[in-house]
Amino acid sequence: xxxxxxxxxxxxxxxxxxxxxxxxxxxxxxxxxxxxxxxxxxxxxxxxxxxxxxxxxxxxxxxxxxxxxxxxxxxxxxxxxxxxxxxxxxxxxxxxxxxxxxxxxxxxxxxxxxxxxxxxxxxxxxxxxxxxxxxxxxxxxxxxxxxxxxxxxxxxxxxxxxxxxxxxxxxxxxxxxxxxxxxxxxxxxxxxxxxxxxxxxxxxxxxxxxx
Length: 211
Prior knowledge:
Number of strands: 7
Shape: globular
Largest sheet: 7 strands, mixed
Structural class: alpha/beta
Strand order of the largest sheet: 3-2-1-4-5-7-6
């Protein structure tokens, strides 16, 4: 998700240390201590403007959530939603999704969400896709044995690629939705993109994959 630079975004993030972690490297292996409880920790890589992470935190107060995005302005909009919702079980990180092992110890994360990731459709950009094998290696390191990735997209090409990538990596596809909003799936929390695309009648794909 790309947005125009937001004036004062850096200052806004700095003014909310209760939500925005400025030194995530120092938190590695200590996230339960940071949250002040031993609840499961779920992360969203590429959290965008925060609708999903905020909605999930409100729906599941007994789970801790960490939203990750590299873009300063985007993360500042996510912070707006977190502050408005007043959800204490959310933290935000401005870091790159390829470096997660710098911030999380092995098996420290209970579940990982990928929502409407950049499809990088050109073959030469395959390694940038968040479901490419090198990313899966990183995710596997911070997730527990049989840890899960929950993935949603409107892009059929990326979805097909991701199903193959998960399978080739040896993951188990637990459940696949070819039209999420026409299914009986309960408790779905939409992202900004998801709401936009579904309003246009586009199909939303979803898969739960387990290591």
